Amino acid sequence: MRNGFIDALHAKGGGQFYFPAGRYLTGSLQLKSNVTLYLEKEVMLLGSTSPYDYPGFSTEKELKVNNDHFDQALIYAEGAENIGITGEGCIDGQGRELALTIDSLHHTGELVDKHYNTYRKRPNTRPKLLFMSNCRKVELRKTNFRSGAAWGLSFSLCVDLTIDSLHVENRAYWNNDGIDISDCKDVRISNCFINSADDGICLKSHNRGAWNDRVSISNCHIISSASAIKFGTESLGGFKNVTIDNIRIKDTFRSAIAIESVDGAEIENVKLENIEIVCPGRATRGMAYMSVSRLKDVPENEKGYPEFTMFEELPSWGFYVRHVKGIQMHNVKLRLQEDDFRPAFVFDRVSDVRLSDISLPENKKAGQVVLRQTSLQSADNAVKEYVREVE
User: Fold this and answer.
1) Paired strand residues for 370
2) Which of 364, 322, 329, 327 is nearest to 343 (CA)?
3) How far apart are CA 297 and CA 186, in angstroms?
4) pLDDT in tens for each of the 391 residues of the chain?
5) What is the pTM for the complete model shown?
6) 34: left (phi over 0), alpha (psi -120 to 50) or beta
7) Distance (Å, rounded) from C-alpha 277 to C-alpha 335?
8) How far apart are CA 367 and CA 391, in angstroms?
9) How many other CB atoms sit within 10 Å of the CB of residue 153?
């Protein structure tokens, strides 16, 4: 399939291109202004397994600072408005077959990937499933997306983006994020199922002077081999006015929600509410013991990749918070399946902490909120009973 049908529809002022039931094989398709793709329920739109069918779009601004090298996509749009994909059909990138072909061509010398990852033995120049840059008024509804060679659905510098009732299965290869949002405004992600071999929904900021703003993520079910919802690690601009509501997370290896920065974002004024966390417990003083009297010994590790593994055992079983300005927690319930010697909360050099309606195990209250060089701005009486200050 060629891009001619989209070009012709765009030239006439736009409209909906309808895919009736059937199987279609295509290389890269560029979606243009005022054009919507409608995939009937029995449609299977298959991505080509030849890398020659995916031209690069290296005009993308973020590629100047981003090192993922994914400058190709099965479906892409740049500078378009009033575009979308809908219908209950499936877009399948055949990503594993495509990635393995790219790998083979690299080793034969026919198509050498100058960014080849020799450590992990995989090509880094691989097409995303979908990429949109500098677009406005984008709607994706009800469609199934699966098996990209790289990230799944990726958006950069877009405004007015609606992602609703999608089914995303992206587990074909490495770096298979589900949905990536970079420096976009007015974004609504709702009612989606995401099963990804990397981060599920990832908010990124690749551009200085830009940021994600007014982003809502709600009523989604996420399975992830990394973090279900992640902020970063790319965070050159930052994140503002992000709300996350009613998210079901299952079988996730790293974090349910991760806020991570390695390149200078301001992470401040964070509000966490209506959260219940059940931890397995079982930590003992014989296991990488870090006493709360030694909080200063927890390494800063500024150049390390900010994941849960970077510090090994931390001195709290619920929340460990450090170097944050402004954090509110309300209606947070922490439960232990088995006992744990550590406190539930550690706040280290944090300013403006506000805690209310915090619920802890009945036998875990005194000394469960540890403060080091931290200002507790407000707390209800029950929380104050848990507080312990250390040097």
Assistant:
1) 346, 388
2) 364
3) 42
4) 678 889 999 999 999 999 999 999 999 999 999 999 999 999 999 999 999 999 987 654 444 445 556 789 999 999 999 999 999 999 999 999 999 999 999 999 999 999 899 998 999 999 999 999 999 999 999 999 999 999 999 999 999 999 999 999 999 999 999 999 999 999 999 999 999 999 999 999 988 889 999 999 999 999 999 999 999 888 888 899 999 999 999 998 888 888 887 766 668 888 888 888 888 888 888 776 788 888 998 888 877 777 777 887 889 999 999 988 999 999 999 999 998 889 999 999 999 999 999 999 887 778 999 999 999 999 988 888 889 999 8
5) 0.88
6) left
7) 6
8) 14
9) 30
Choose among 1, 79, 92, 88: nearest CA to 34.
79
Cβ atoms of residues 205 and 182 within 8 Å: yes
Which residue do the tokens 């990937």 mark? 113
Triad 76, 78, 84: Cα angle to 5°: 60
Give the total residue count for the chain: 391
